[in-house]
Amino acid sequence: MSREERKPIVDTSNSSSCSSGEEEVHPVVRRRSTRDTELSLGGPKDPGCCDPSSTPHRFLALLFMCLLGFGSYFCYDNPGALQDVFQKELDLNSTEFTLIYSIYSWPNIVLCFVGGFLIDRVFGIRLGTIIYMLIVLVGQLIFATGGVLGSFWLMIVGRFVFGIGAESLAVAQNSYAVLWFKGKELNMVFGLQLSVARFGSTVNFWIMQPLYGYVSKTYAGYTGLGVALFLASSTCVMSLLCTLILGNIQHTNKCHSIAIVSLLPGWMDKRAERILKRNNNPTGEIAKLSDVVTFKLDFWMVSVVCVAYYVAIFPFVALGQSFFVNNFQMTPDEANTVNSIVYLISAIASPVFGFVIDKVGRNVTWVFCATISTLLAHLLLTFTHWDPYIAMSIMGLSYSMLAASLWPLVSLIIPEYQLGTAYGFCQSVQNLGLAVVTVVAGMIVDSSGGSHFWLQLFFIFFLLISLLATCCIWAYNRKHQGNLNMSPGQRSTYHTSMYVNIESS
Prior knowledge:
Layout: H1 3-6, E1 9-11, E2 28-30, H2 34-39, H3 55-67, H4 70-76, H5 78-81, H6 83-89, H7 94-105, H8 108-121, H9 125-149, H10 152-181, H11 186-215, H12 221-232, H13 234-248, H14 258-261, H15 265-275, H16 297-310, H17 314-318, H18 320-328, H19 332-339, H20 341-360, H21 363-383, H22 388-413, H23 419-447, H24 453-479, H25 488-504
Antiparallel strand pairs: 1-2
């Protein structure tokens, strides 16, 4: 801050020369507001990145929001990229291998819902995000330690702890997105977050096999597996640093530090909340766990889609290496490459679909199209011998389309003060489905002698359920004249009319 900016503004209009015996009149001192001084760096007409309402400021915060999920998604699919190694070095069948994935989901049937409530009511979004990311890192380190020791039960404990943090972290990430971008570029932001997260999964499928091959030259057997998992945990350390930046940097009022500190979005979020007088709960209502019973049918159908659609994606990818090796006679490296196509395409296409959906709206229609095209991809993989890259590319585009259109629906249905609870509930029921379906998928493969035909029919059945739930959302929204399938212009008019009705009542 310059010397002039540090000086108080003095109003001397009420001051005069005081004769002896008259009471001295002190000048009125008006100090510059925090907003005045903090926004002065960019000039009165162009506050630039220092203004929390500016696009550069918000997208700088978005960069860290996206990176905080990179590590958890990278490490989540470590077993999928090394399925052959896990089963060989730890002597696991398909059912035991899928337990690594399902144990991740079991604690989140309850804790993810509670985690969202804690963000709303106890921790707040900044502290909650830091706590959940720490839990993710600790869980991955326990998982890697179990690998070094060849202890499968310890690895299961590690994945359990990892799951507690990772899904609640996803809830916090969604809440951050709505906080900064609701009514602006929210669909695109959800797409970008998914893009970076799934790029983490894609990089995992690309490098874990070569990394294990390099490590195994020095550390043989399960010890090499554990060392490779320890190296993978470095991505969680990177995400933890982003989380600390996003949530733990304290505010400073010194303008000469703004150029440095404005790069730290935790400070940015705290500062934006104060400068913009951001109030996420203008009615003063308090989120309660019992609020979930008041949610309407369209929210419940969104939750059904969350379960039924994603259980046809994640368990398929988890067992994808063996599917492509057995059905298309690929090597493990080739199978990992085609298996990663879903995440690679989603990393590119998710923000594109988000941008398009921000412009055209019609979220329910996009969800419907995504479900239909994913169903087509599974049918191609099950009943044809076409190049699997075709079906996996369709699946990747469909997955991107659904993620960019489905999750913003929650923010259109639920009030902001309940969003953490609502997103937590969606994650909870999704994890219930994943916990059960992943184990059942492994059992189906084992009972079929390694064949994936019946498993594919199992996935197709869930996609049909997702399609039915999407039709229910459309019908309910149409009956109640809701805004879920409106264009952005129609939604703006809808919200204006709702506000007018509330004011006049």
